[in-house]
Design brief:
The complex is a heterodimer of chains A (630) and B (107).
Chain A (H helix, E strand, L loop, with lengths): L16 H10 L3 H30 L9 H35 L8 H20 L17 H5 L3 H29 L12 H32 L14 H34 L6 H14 L15 H13 L1 H15 L8 H23 L2 H7 L3 H31 L5 H27 L16 H31 L38 H7 L14 E3 L5 H18 L6 H24 L5 E3 L1 H11 L1
Antiparallel strand pairs in A: 1-2
Helix pairs in contact in A: 2-3, 2-4, 2-16, 3-4, 3-6, 3-14, 4-6, 4-18, 6-7, 6-18, 7-8, 7-9, 8-11, 8-12, 8-14, 9-11, 11-12, 12-14, 12-15, 14-15, 15-16, 18-19
Chain B lengths: L1 H42 L5 H23 L8 H23 L5
Helix pairs in contact in B: 1-2
The chains are: A mainly alpha (630), B mainly alpha (107).
The complex binds copper (II) ion.
Copper (II) ion (CU) binds next to helix 8 of chain A.
GO biological process, one term (chain B): aerobic electron transport chain
Keywords (chain B): Cell membrane, Membrane, Transmembrane, Transmembrane helix
GO molecular function (chain B): cytochrome bo3 ubiquinol oxidase activity; proton transmembrane transporter activity
């Protein structure tokens, strides 16, 4: 890192609410951005969860009238969209930001400014989407927004979907590029690719998938945007368009998206199981290979969402075989986790319970996935509750279990305090049992013929009992989340203070520094000598990493409010475009949109012109801080 | 001694630059020839149509590769990642386009 920029010391701010707010709005520190992502994702996770509860209350008994028709469609659409884009993705980015720079021995990400921008774009995208509730109704076309329903027939809500996801998607894309560059360029000396912790590997492949998949969504959303607001005809069959193209574009993005979600969970599970089995991860190189293979195959399988469209037997067969092939690398991973556990000294704390609970749950989701990959059988399963059960098994039973495991595991590192284990275990068992109650029986509902996305069913169709059980399970999951919130509050007030090596058997670099880490992460860049670098040093009888450099001044990026302003200006632009669909206000609304875009470019200009030298934390200050934590 | 060494390295660098320049000129010339060939095949009557389209697409691909490797430095060392990413992206784009020209369902 070059240190010949101007030596500015950080301006000291006076305390108070506004300086606190300012600090969070303008931060570019990856550890704070991780907390922002966690908060933003958590907020939308709760909103999406409440929507899920509304759905389950409506379906608890036959012929219910609690939430019907268009309102029900709005709620299912917002539930899916919120959970995927506004809860799962930011949770993943929270863990990425909190952990990746620490795991590779870096002081920050490659582009701290872009990192902040990515967060604020995601957050404002989520706000735009959720504003629809108050401004004329939410989108109601399902999270897949199939054309021409979404491009011609649904009301103003779809505009919120299009522009909200466009803004949030831009943030995600930036975040991914940032992490790619970080992992390629900012690894500590000795941290070769085949020594990267598995979480870093999976995040790396996830970032590649985002880089290649999200542009498809961006393009698709632009096409719908033009169809809706400027009377284009991309998806209008009557005027020579083709609505099937939307399905292709959406799933060219949508299938990789599923792996974007699940791969980081695989990474978390690999870290947690290895740590709490006190063993090196079994088959490290085969894990890396399997991750890359899954990432590669992710782009060859999207048609399995479209078997019933009528693309013909040859197309269906090719994509069916490609889909089934994915079971092979996934199977490799499952066996490697089991072999890691085998003969280990296993600690069953909450993090590890989630990780171990993940394995059978995810296998069930995988098995139904292979069942769905058979085109002939898929004609039976398609758009039934069998599909709903399948993807909740992989997304909740896979991704959310992985994320919760990661939260319990890295919480002490992020906040310097442990979460309570008793509450944690209550949280786990409620969630685990509630999850299986909710979704296991939906397999049978699907096989019995209950279609997905219908807001009710009749008495005497035989769906009553399973739906009731499913709703009870959903309430258990809801209570589990409340327990988790209580746990977080408890930890913030009375939680046990965490040591640097919080679990006392940490293997990777993040555990070699204080919890929470100082602003500069590593006082001295560590020298990595093998896989599980910190564990290796501990086995050699040391309690910290060998340094690769002497203690010196540390260069830091200065904070900036510009990312927040840029996101605000895009929000203004989006709202302008959304309201331009209303006849009476088209001209002024388009003017507002234009003003937002201009503001955005002015922010970019300001950022380009203003020189940002950053500041230095001086050697003496670093030594002083390091004394405090040891 | 030291001066002699630096003279040698300077000589080597000069030679390298010379070779680099030659590569540029050769690939530039080749590209002009390719372009002329492409225009030629289209303009001359009597060449079968499917041969023409096959031929000019091939020429286009070769030209893109020349561009990437010689003018955008993919052939230099430490360009492994950009190369990998460009080709992965190209592969994904290719599969997508292939799908759109082959299996998009039209009623
Ligand atoms: Cu899929």
């Amino acid at each position: 890192m070059s240190v010949n920029a101007h030596s500015l010391s950080q301006p000291k701010q006076n305390s108070g609410f506004f300086s606190w707010l300012w600090e969070w709005l303008s931060t570019v520190d990856h550890k704070k951005i991780a907390i922002l992502y966690l908060f933003g994702g958590g907020l939308f996770f709760l909103i999406g969860g409440i929507e899920a509860m509304l759905i389950r209350i409506q379906l608890a008994v036959p012929e219910n009238t609690f939430l019907v028709g268009h309102n029900y469609n709005e709620v299912i659409t917002m539930h899916g969209t919120t959970m995927i884009f506004l809860a799962a993705m930011p949770f993943i980015f929270a863990l990425m930001n909190a952990v990746i720079p620490l795991q590779i021995g870096a002081r920050d990400v490659a582009f701290p400014f872009v990192n902040a921008l990515g967060f604020w774009l995601f957050f404002m995208g989520g706000i735009i989407l959720n504003l629809s509730w108050f401004l004329g109704g939410a989108p109601a076309g399902g999270w897949t927004a199939y054309a021409p329903l979404s491009s011609e027939f649904l009301g103003n809500g779809m505009d919120f979907y299009v522009l909200g996801l466009q803004v949030a998607g831009a943030g995600t894309l930036m975040g991914a590029i940032n992490f790619l560059v970080t992992i390629v360029n900012m690894r500590a000396p000795g941290m070769t690719f085949m020594r990267l912790p598995l979480f870093t590997w999976t995040v790396f492949i996830t970032a590649v998938l985002i880089l290649f998949a999200f542009p498809a969504l961006t393009v698709g959303l632009f096409l719908i945007f033009f169809d809706r607001l400027f009377d284009a005809n991309f998806f209008n069959e009557a005027n020579g368009g083709n609505s099937i193209i939307w399905e292709h574009i959406f799933w060219i993005f949508g299938h990789p998206e599923v792996y974007i979600l699940i791969l980081p969970a695989f990474g978390v599970i690999s870290e947690v199981i290895a740590t709490f089995s006190k063993k090196r991860l079994f088959g490290y190189s085969s894990m890396v290979f399997a991750t890359i293979l899954i990432g590669f195959l992710a782009f060859m399988v999207w048609v399995h969402h479209m078997f019933t469209v009528g693309l013909g037997p040859s197309a269906n067969t090719i994509f069916a075989i490609a889909t089934m092939a994915i079971a092979v690398p996934t199977g490799i991973k499952i066996f490697n986790w089991i072999f890691t556990l085998w003969g280990g000294q296993i600690t069953f704390n909450t993090a590890n319970l989630y990780a171990v609970g993940f394995i059978p749950t995810f296998v069930m989701g995988g098995v139904t996935g292979v069942m769905l990959a058979v085109p002939t059988a898929d004609f039976q399963y398609h758009d039934s509750y069998f599909v709903v059960a399948h993807f909740h098994y992989v997304i909740v039973g896979g991704l959310i279990f992985g994320l919760f495991s990661g939260f319990y595991y890295w919480w002490p590192k992020m906040f310097g305090r442990h979460l309570n284990e008793t509450l944690g275990k209550i949280n786990f068992w409620l969630f685990f049992i509630g999850f299986h109650l909710t979704f296991f029986f939906q397999h049978f509902l699907g096989l019995m013929g209950m279609p997905r996305r219908y807001f009710t069913y009749l008495k005497g169709e035989g769906f009553d009992a399973f739906n009731m059980v499913s709703t009870i399970g959903a309430f258990l999951m809801f209570f589990a989340v409340i327990v988790m919130l209580i746990n977080i509050a408890y930890s913030a007030v009375k939680g046990e203070k965490a040591k640097g090596d919080a679990w006392e058997q940490g293997r990777t670099l993040e555990w070699s520094i204080a919890s929470p880490p100082p602003e500069y992460n590593f006082a001295q860049t560590p020298l990595v000598k093998g896989i599980d670098a910190f564990w290796k040093e501990k086995m050699d009888g040391k309690d910290k990493m060998t340094a690769a450099e002497p203690v010196g001044d540390i260069h830091m990026p200065s904070s900036s409010i510009v990312p927040f302003l840029m996101s605000i200006s895009l929000t203004i632009a989006s709202l302008g475009f959304i309201f331009s669909a209303h006849d009476g206000v088209r001209k002024p609304a388009l003017f507002v949109a234009g003003a937002g875009v201009v503001l955005f470019f002015l922010c970019m200009l300001a950022r380009s012109i203003k020189d940002d030298p950053g500041f230095h934390i001086h050697k003496e200050e670093v030594i002083e801080t390091e004394k405090g934590v040891r | 001694m030291a001066t002699k060494q630096s003279e040698t390295t300077m000589y080597i660098q000069k030679q390298q630059r010379k070779r680099e320049m030659q590569h540029y000129l050769v690939s530039f010339g080749l590209m002009i020839i390719f372009t002329l060939l492409a225009f030629g095949t289209v303009m001359i009557d009597g060449i079968p149509k499917h041969f023409t389209s096959f031929f000019i697409v091939t020429l286009a691909i070769v030209q893109v590769l020349f561009q990437l490797y010689y003018f955008m430095h993919l052939k230099d060392k430490d360009h492994g990642f950009p190369t990998l990413f460009i080709f992965s992206g190209a592969l994904v784009a290719f599969i997508t386009v292939l799908t759109f020209v082959s299996i998009v369902w039209i009623s």
